[in-house]
Amino acid sequence: MKYNSFILFFVLSFLTVSCTDNLVDVGTGIQPTSDGITVGADTFHVATENVDIASMSTKPDSFLLGSLYNEKYGSTQADILAQLEGPIGFKYPAGAVFDSTLLKLRCKSSYGDKNAPLDVNVYMMNKTFNFSSNYSTALNPADYVDFSNVPLGHNVVTARYSSGSVDSTIKVIKLSNSFTQKLCDQTTYTSDNVFYKSVGGVYLKVNFGMSALLNISQLDLQAFYHYPVVRNGKDTIASAVLTFPANVTVRQVNRILHPDKTAVIAKLQLKDSVNYVSAPANIQTRVILPLARMKQQMDAKMLNKKLLLNSALINVEVFEADSSTYPLPVVSHMLLIKESEIADFFKNDKLPTGSNAVLATYTTSTSTTNSITTTSHYYPFNIAKLLATEIKTAEANKTLLTDDFKMRLVPVNVTYNSTGTTPTAVKQQTTLGAITICGGKKKTSPMRVHMVYSGF
């Protein structure tokens, strides 16, 4: 649907500050008066719909553990499968005796009820991951764990200690004596294969609790032992600890499930004026642009002149944040990306260039009219370069544009350079987050794209 053009003065002002990428090269020579600049501006509605995200492949920097129910976005259950790095070449000192083995979890934050108990079981993995392979968050633990064996250990933990501290809290799970003896029987680890037969990795599963999720930043297995030494001519006993970390040199996978998602999405679909984004691996919003009609409209106004697409703005307006008993955090960064490029983008750790995807940050702005102050919350996207790339590619390949150009709003975690200005990594969000946005069918302020373009 095309709206009336903006007034020419506004358009010319906009052109001086918002030029992004032209569809074709534009010369700067003096032009005849008859070949002057033609300016156009249009607004197009877009279609939106909720998308069920069954799983995703990612290498997270932290891991969720636990289970949390949210009234709007449903249940999130999270387990951890973690390989451990072996101390290859290390040899225990003569006479070493193992005292105990502990699994230590560093909890940097949590969601839900910080006092809710979580009963955590620890199993041994009997199959390891391939470091270079991608693994789905919906993988089956039975492919890596023999559940006929008894757990290595378990403990009931909460998000905080009685002191109320949650940052850098250490959770400890004591492992079985039989597992400790197994470590003792292996006096040295000559290779990864030898180590994996002895330890390999661990699977952490929460047995009960629907009110808390821990955000685990570090996982270490620590073996405590003692051995005889001679110091200053006297026999004595020395104590030591050997750490088997789950770190970046080996693979870990966060298994994430939303068991009631089908019912949740069916309920959300009843309100089609808004759309939803929920992470991790839960719900995303598809944005469908009438690209062929947009190009046709621009060509009609430019009268066969060379086309310059100055701006194509989509402000994804926030309808509401979560206000549940245990609200999910607001999604801080969103990626608007061509739907067919999603898998390749994240698999190959690409960065948004404007022509493949556009990154936006949750933004708040205020305006005052007639002494009334209004606050807006939105994610601003300028997709001019991306659309220009699509149009150029279609022209070069002599293919037809479509009115069904699918893009996707994907919540992401972003890492910036030391100055905080340039993204150095963009990954699908593995921490909890959600937002409700204004959709294409909203009667007031629907999602739409505002385009400014010119012809030479």
Give the helix/strand layout.
Elements: H1 8-18, E1 21-22, E2 38-45, E3 47-52, E4 63-70, E5 74-83, E6 97-112, E7 118-124, E8 153-157, E9 169-174, H2 177-185, H3 192-198, E10 201-206, E11 211-231, E12 234-246, E13 252-257, H4 261-268, E14 274-279, E15 283-289, H5 291-302, E16 307-320, E17 333-338, H6 342-347, E18 357-361, E19 363-369, E20 372-382, H7 384-397, E21 405-416, E22 423-428, E23 433-438, E24 448-455
Antiparallel strand pairs: 1-16, 2-24, 3-15, 4-5, 4-11, 5-10, 5-13, 6-9, 6-11, 7-8, 7-10, 11-12, 14-23, 15-21, 16-20, 16-23, 16-24, 17-18, 17-21, 19-20, 21-22
List keywords for this structure.
mainly beta, ten-stranded antiparallel sheet, about 15% helix, disordered N terminus, about 450 residues, eight-stranded antiparallel sheet
Please give a structural write-up.
The chain has 456 residues and is mostly beta strands. The chain has two domains: 241 residues, no CATH class; 188 residues, no CATH class. It contains seven helices and 24 strands. Strands 4, 5, 6, 7, 8, 9, 10, 11, 12 and 13 form a ten-stranded antiparallel sheet that branches. Strands 1, 2, 14, 16, 19, 20, 23 and 24 form an eight-stranded antiparallel sheet that branches. Strands 3, 15, 17, 18, 21 and 22 form a six-stranded antiparallel sheet that branches. The two termini are 26 Å apart. The N terminus is likely disordered.
